[in-house]
UniProtKB/TrEMBL annotation, chain A:
<dbReference type="InterPro" id="IPR032836">
    <property type="entry name" value="DsrE2-like"/>
</dbReference>
<dbReference type="Pfam" id="PF13686">
    <property type="entry name" value="DrsE_2"/>
</dbReference>
<protein>
    <recommendedName>
        <fullName>NADH dehydrogenase</fullName>
    </recommendedName>
</protein>
<dbReference type="InterPro" id="IPR027396">
    <property type="entry name" value="DsrEFH-like"/>
</dbReference>
Amino acid sequence: MSQQKKKTTIILFSGDYDKAMAAYIIANGAAAYDHDVTIFHTFWGLNALRKDAHAPVQKGFLEKMFAKMMPRGADRMGLSRMNFAGIGPKLIKHVIKKHNAMPLPQLIDMAKEQGVKLVACQMTVDLLGLKPEELIDGIEFAGVAAYLADASEGNVNLFI
Amino acid sequence: MNVEKVLDAKGLSCPMPVVKAKKAMDELTSGQVLEVQTTDKGAKSDLPAWAQASGHKVIDIKEENGILTFWIEKG
């Protein structure tokens, strides 16, 4: 196939495990469709890109508060429904295993392996006080113009 | 029919059968046939849709004891 590749872009705004899972399943499917895929993470969606280990960085009081109150990494995200103070995610992970589906952290690894471009919105990274050291490797930092450049050529553009 | 490669995707859920099929197909050359075995009911619609969009051709589909088998020729 010599014609130009199709494009899929997804804005992941949500920090919910289930919504992020949907985004990453679509991203992996689109990559298998041979699309160029970009996931643009902004606001709570940035938590999907956080390392689950604590990273030693210098922060102010507010930034520390934000870091404490947000889930550190994809595996610690809550559900958009039936979260039940943390029991919901445990239940979901149990049924994911039972049905041999892929949990979110593996979906993210698979997306990286398939060459999905993972982008962190620089402005919200700053707002939430996140430091590059706290985010996983292999991601890019960009703003609205870079997103629009991709999306204006996109065949599938989603906001999740 | 000459099957070049057999992909066992049994037990895997969406999106894995399609992701694995794409990976397996990348290793074949045009005209070669990939056999995909899956137990994912959604694959019945997924794999033909993926094949068509990617320029491949589904030659045959068989369903037996809950196992779906696809033969897909690389385009």
